[in-house]
Here is the input.
Amino acid sequence: MFKGTIDENLNKQSIKGSEVKKLREKIIETYPSIEKYLEEIWPKDAKVLKSKIKVEDYLVQVYLIDDEIRFMENRDKIVIPTMRILHQYPFMMPHMQCDKGAIKHILSGSDVMCPGLTSPGGKMENLERYQVVAITAEGKVNAMGIGITVMSTEEIIKKNKDVAIELIQNLNDGLWKLTRPAATL
Amino acid sequence: MYGGAAQEDEPAQQQEEQPAKQVAGPSKMLAAFAGGDSDEERKKKAKKRERQGKKAKGGKKQQSESEEEEQPASTQATEADKGDDKEEQKVGAGAAPVEKPEFPLQVVYCRVCGVPPEYCMFDKKDSTECKAWVLANHPELHDQIYGAPKPVEEGAAEAAPQQQQKKKKKVSLAPSGDSDVKIYKAKRGGKKVISTVVGLHNYGVPLKDMAKIMGKKFACGAAYQPDDEKYGECIQIQGDVAERFVDLLEAELTKYKVPFDRIKFEEVKKKKKAEAADGDDDGDE
Here is the structure.
């Protein structure tokens, strides 16, 4: 989704307190297991700004918490954490594992296709449609992307064709580079 | 040593205390029935507790004394227990507040390409630089990702020429730091030309003075640029001096033993993005 580089100079806007409250609730609702750590990711007294990044032909709302992009909201109003957050708290969402052959396509921004998940290298959790999932790869520890399922797991197995997970963010895309921590080891 | 023993004692003490409480419980109830705790009863209870405490303490001492011989074994056992506990904590992802320090996880990112090292090889065609970095900074990860550990010299030898090649590629247009003196001719609006002399500092030429000399010699403006954004340290001369530069060489530059064959003339027509980037790199040098 975030192909190419993103301009660093974001047009930031401050955000209302009630909106922050709503967002936090929404995050807990979508990712129940993160509740305990939400205070670390998003401290209550943190400075919250919102901005918009133009992606393809529409805008994605991003939320800067303490000047760091940690969450975004796509046009379907689903709140999604950035890859950096997912790497820090990998348990927050279900994982879908692709086989090895899919890695290079996904790292270049392609959606996840069914055969990549159903082949021997892939692993799936039983999921419904439209869920935010972490995309991992065969033999890898860290996630390589975040996506939203377009089909339920049953459908994927049955159909075994076309796009299964729509990619939101992948490693080394524009947003990944934008959120690069200042002190990179 | 003692810590281990004490830890083992604690459960015992608790066990001893528990019955005391149980005893105390009913008596309290009875007392309540009887119409409030009398002072005597309270004292008795206090005494009881004291005694039990003493007993526990005494027990502790005795145990610790008796265990002094066994202590190595016992401490080992406790350590093993601790280890087990930790493992359990690691396995049970995201529950008790005790595990809090576990998260956020610190994921290692490759410094060369910015992704976790396990994905380095997919990012581009050659990941030797990444490999070298991982080997240098996180050897344990290197073994995991790239299989059996290669001999270190081999990895280094592989990485070194790679880097050199890259450098050469980058510097192909701008001066290759060593010994070339290059003169770039760039158009500056219409028929005006600006010549840039790069690389004289490699021969110990005082650039500031040389700029003045050049200005006089060529009868034009010549300026020393300590940090040009494209070429770094250089002398900028207004006008096309490429042809006349050879004269200058004979007159002035023989002092500094600048070899003729090292001087190269190049023409820059349009600024490309890549060139600009290269220039930046050289400026850093």
Notes: Chain B touches chain A through 21 residues (CB under 8 Å). The first strand of chain B starts at residue 181 and ends at 187. The CA atoms of residues 181 and 199 of chain B lie 5 Å apart. The two ends of chain B are 58 Å apart (CA to CA).
